[in-house]
């Protein structure tokens, strides 16, 4: 498929490069600079397929930041009468037409976009109109279901995230204990699907499952630091958040459980691994 990485067979080798069997796309040209000396007719090579400025099917062995159908944070390299050209991480930039820019793009800035094939030109393009690609089907998530998230934007109440590349949800500020940024990919859990279809998401699973995972993280950190960490039940919540990406309340639950198990000793501002 155009805009994706494929394994293609070499049909012809010439002075300019190689022609690959692109199947339904026809011949795909690979420039000489990217044809390794040991390759022969019939060999297969992994390439990313795009159209050059003349519309010819072209391959590159360079790895793009994203492929067709994927979301990615891309930087604007140039703006002209056609739209904004974004850095895809290869020799070919990708166009975001003006009518697919929400908000309007600015030179040098980065935007979360989705790569798609334009129906009219069949060219690979990018769109920052995220709403166009999500919430097309009814959400059917179970409470505390683990999901893949992409941070889409920052709002007055939290961060808007794309869930499993299908729906939009919100993570509220008061549930966030780690640094977040646009385009970031991470795991999370569906907290609630409301009657109006809006979805609340959290980064930590509520309850003892969260504390259990944190306890294991604390033990691993103690082991790595020689059995001592300068954090205790009276430590600054911000220091705890920076170290373990969690709230002070959850941290105290976790170290309390480890103390009862006889695994650590707790001081006001430190914990020690018992030998």
TrEMBL record:
Residues 216-273 form the Conserved virulence factor B-like winged helix domain. Transmembrane segments: none annotated. InterPro entries: CvfB_fam, CvfB_S1_st, CvfB_WH, NA-bd_OB-fold, WH-like_DNA-bd_sf. Residues 2-62 form the Conserved virulence factor B first S1 domain. Belongs to the CvfB family. This is GntR family transcriptional regulator. It comes from Pseudoalteromonas aurantia 208.
């Amino acid at each position: 498929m155009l805009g994706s990485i494929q394994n293609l067979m070499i049909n012809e080798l010439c002075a300019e490069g190689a022609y690959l069997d692109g199947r339904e796309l026809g011949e795909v040209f690979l420039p000489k600079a990217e044809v390794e000396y040991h390759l022969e007719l019939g060999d297969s090579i992994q390439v990313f397929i795009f159209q050059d400025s003349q519309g010819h099917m072209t391959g590159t062995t360079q790895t793009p930041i994203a492929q067709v159908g994927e979301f990615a944070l891309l930087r604007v390299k140039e703006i002209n009468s056609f739209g904004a050209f974004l850095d895809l991480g290869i020799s070919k930039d990708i166009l975001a037409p003006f009518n697919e820019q929400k908000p309007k793009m600015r030179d040098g800035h980065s935007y979360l976009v989705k790569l798609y094939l334009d129906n009219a030109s069949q060219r690979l393009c990018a769109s920052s109109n995220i709403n166009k690609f999500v919430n097309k089907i009814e959400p059917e998530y179970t409470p505390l279901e683990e999901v893949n998230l992409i941070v889409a934007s920052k709002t007055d109440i939290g961060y808007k995230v794309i869930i499993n590349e299908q729906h939009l949800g919100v993570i509220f500020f008061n549930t966030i204990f780690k640094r977040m940024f646009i385009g970031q990919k991470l795991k999370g859990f569906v907290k609630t699907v409301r009657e109006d279809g809006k979805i609340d998401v959290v980064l930590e699973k509520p309850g003892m499952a969260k504390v259990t995972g944190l306890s294991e993280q604390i033990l691993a950190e103690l082991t790595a630091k020689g059995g001592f960490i300068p954090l205790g039940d009276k430590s600054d919540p911000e220091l705890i958040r920076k170290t373990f990406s969690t709230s002070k309340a959850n941290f105290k639950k976790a170290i309390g459980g480890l103390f009862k198990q006889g695994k650590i000793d707790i001081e006001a501002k430190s914990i020690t691994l018992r030998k």
